[in-house]
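pls ignore typos typing on phone
2'-deoxycytidine-5'-monophosphate + seq
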Amino acid sequence: MTKLTPTIAIDGPAASGKGTLARRLAEYFRFHHLDTGLTYRGVAHALIEANMPLDNEDMACLVAEKLDLGSLNKDILSAHEIGDAASKVAVMSRVRETLVEAQRKFANKEPGAVLDGRDIGTVVCPQAEIKLYITASPEKRAERRYREVGEKGSGAEYSQILADIIKRDERDMGRADSPLKPAENAHLIDTSEMSIETAFSTALALVEEALSE
Ligand code: DC
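k done
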């Protein structure tokens, strides 16, 4: 590996497998990892706890400014409803500006960082050494989410999860500011028919090649 403080940018829709890949790549290279979805979820969760509406931009900005990236609790924030609320909070440009600034600082950590989200390759770290766009069909993603929430004992219906995923894709891809889309120079990986191991080895080969250039 020859690059100094490299950034690995990973984007993709909800439940595409990008989070697992990001975590595993960070472990492999001993890089820092930030799941940027948690930052939007953290803001949404704080607003819900304070009984505040999700579309109050001033209030959401205050919460975003105070957010401590080190104290984001994945167990609490990974709830399905918080993902939906986060996607609503994420349409507000001033909230995005505040969170993007914190995310960029994180990306400069030595010896390197992996960030995953929706706009990492396009907006947060356009200079990233390597960009991956992880996708899968809505049905496959709903199946994975269904199994995940089932294991946690939630009685959510598959059809409801699929409908939510489709709605969230529309919101994340259709918003005016930083919509979800692959960066021009991103490598696309469709994990619909891949095991986690195959997805990981595919991603690893691309990252190793880019970092050794
Ligand atoms: O990845 P996730 O499901 O935890 O993200 C939750 C929501 O946060 C997602 O639906 C849209 C928003 N988000 C975003 O707009 N930009 C990011 N970089 C990450 C997440």
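Residues 14, 36-37, 40-41, 83, 86-87, 90, 117-119, 168, 172 surround 2'-deoxycytidine-5'-monophosphate (CB under 6 Å). Residues 158-174 form the longest helix (17 residues). more later
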